[in-house]
Amino acid sequence: LKDVLPPDLHARFAAQRSKVTSDADKWERYRPLIAAAFLQQAAFHQVNLSMRLDLGAALRALAKKHGVRVEEIKVAGVSDMLDALKTMPPATERTCVQASLSTLENGLPRLIERAQAWTSGNVERIENMPELKEVDACRNALDEGKGAVDVIGRIRQTWLENIEKYLRSAGTTIAVVNLDLMLERGGLLDQLRAKGYDIDAP
Description:
Elements lengths: L6 H11 L14 H15 L8 H11 L12 H10 L2 H30 L3 H5 L5 H11 L7 H17 L11 H5 L4 H7 L8
């Protein structure tokens, strides 16, 4: 890491790493974005946050119990993410590493508050929590990507196409979608509004 990250960025990484492990070499041989992801996961674990909650699994089991048909929507998977990393410009990767570090340095209280709002279904509270500017910068850098880098854009488009397909069909459909994809500026709800759909937000 110290050979590919600017000295100030590596120093920030090392400072955050020291809070979650005594191993000064941990994650040093990973590429920056992967190392930052592992560091973030470890830091989240310390404050009882997790990125692994799978509501989809619980809903699939519930649907099966009641005989409700389930259709899986194929979005980007691990192979797509690996392809994106292969073609990701170093500047974009550094921008997203900065976002991860800023989240750990300044954003954990916000994430804890956001998680508490999520557990109570307080969407308005979540929407009123501004994103860190570094996280916005990372998202914008990814949105500007072409080809394999534009994984997030392809995920949005896949969901938008499938939501519209079911809106045009009869009956009731429940979709389990990442909350950030729904609520972010220019996200799925904004795109559906722009297409003329009436959105009754929770």
